[in-house]
Amino acid sequence: MSPIIRPFSVPRFGSALAVAPLLLLIACTHDQPKAVMPVAATPTAPIAATPPDTSFKVSEAVRVKCNLPDTPTASPQFDFDQADLRPRGMGILDEIATCVQKGSMMGEGLIVTGHTDPRGSDSYNEDLGMRRANNARDYLVSRGVASADITVTSRGEQDASGDEAAGWQLDRRVAIDERSAIASR
């Protein structure tokens, strides 16, 4: 009788040795966690704050009643010879509109006054100030404030105090006050 040859038979003493290459193969192909090398921190510059908005000079009375932060003292809302509102100015007007509709100024009126820098003729600046005030009023109305609750005026360049580019930027603004505060002055 001939001996039976079994494929893959392993003698008893070599069973551990036969399994060792298989374990080694499994160990080598198994995902090993990769070593993480610390990376030196890269210094970063501080994030610059959004420039504050001086185009809307909100009176102390409106600021307190609407719980608004102090009016900033840099970065004009209006470009030279322009009456278009910018996003930051719209944000201020949004807060005022909410306050007049649902907050502590509910039922009270506003006076919106346009201002310009001193460059240009008196009549031109009076008109430009009025366009700025009207744009602010129109925006407030688009946010639900009754048009009858808003009085618009222009001071043109009458209150301008700048004598160079930086000062002129501060002159290009809209002032917002409560109607009763103006009437009582």
Topology:
Blueprint: H1 15-29, E1 56-58, H2 60-65, H3 87-102, E2 110-115, H4 122-142, E3 150-156, H5 165-171, E4 174-178, H6 179-183
Parallel strand pairs: 1-4, 2-3
Antiparallel strand pairs: 2-4
Kindly describe this structure.
By secondary structure, the chain is of the alpha/beta class. It has a domain at 56-183: OmpA-like domain (60s Ribosomal Protein L30, Chain: A, 2-Layer Sandwich). Helices cover 38% and strands 11% of the residues. It is built from 6 helices and 4 strands; from the N terminus they run αβααβαβαβα. It has helices spanning 15-29, 60-65, 87-102, 122-142, 165-171, 179-183; strands at 56-58, 110-115, 150-156, 174-178. The chain has a 4-stranded mixed beta sheet. The chain is globular. The model is unreliable at 19-53 and 181-185 (pLDDT under 50).
CATH superfamily membership of the domain at 56-183: OmpA-like domain
**CATH hierarchy, class of the domain at 56-183:** Alpha Beta
Biggest sheet: strands, sense, closure? 4 strands, mixed
Q: Overall pLDDT, averaged?
A: 75
Which architecture of the domain at 56-183 does the CATH hierarchy give at level 2? 2-Layer Sandwich
Q: What count of helical segments does DSSP give?
A: 6
C-alpha termini separation: 127 Å
The fraction of residues in strands falls at 5-15%
Q: Residue ranges: pLDDT <50 for 5 or more in a row?
A: 19-53, 181-185
What is the 3D shape? globular
Biggest sheet strand line-up: 1-4-2-3
Helix content: 25-40%
The helix/strand class is alpha/beta
Cα-atom Rg, whole angstroms?
A: 36 Å
Total strand segments: 4
CATH topology of the domain at 56-183: 60s Ribosomal Protein L30, Chain: A
**How do the SSEs run, as a string of H and E?**
HEHHEHEHEH
